[in-house]
Amino acid sequence: MSKPSILHLENNRFFIEEVIWVMDEFNNVDYDYAINEMEAKEKLKQKKPDLLVVDLMLNNDFDSTKGINFIEEIRKNDPMQKIMVLSARGDRVCREKLKDMVALYHTKDDIEEACVRMVALV
Q1: pTM of the predicted structure, to 2 decimals
Q2: Which of 5, 10, 37, 66 could serve as 30's disulfide partner, Cβ 3.0–4.6 Å?
Q3: At the fourth CATH level, which superfamily is domain 5-121?
Q4: Helices and strands per DSSP (H, E), number in the chain
């Protein structure tokens, strides 16, 4: 039986390194990441993950448009894909906009808790 898989779309390489460090504790999960939307789409074509984790602010600014657009596109193409948001944006506007599109919305303030929640979703 194969391990459950997680694909994480995150443009911040330092944050990815921290997540990898925590995810190493979970040897029963295959964790992979993409730095941008194009790379994520390519990896999604190769293998559908059990969970897709998406950062909203993919431009290194406070604009969540790219992340939300990416989620909307994935949801349109694959309504059954399980998606989790992991973002520094915790405002009510983003949460409300995505509430019917994602399984979980978590902020980046506690990486260990976020990783535990990722693993729990797969």
Answers
A1: 0.91
A2: 5
A3: Response regulator (3.40.50.2300)
A4: 5, 5
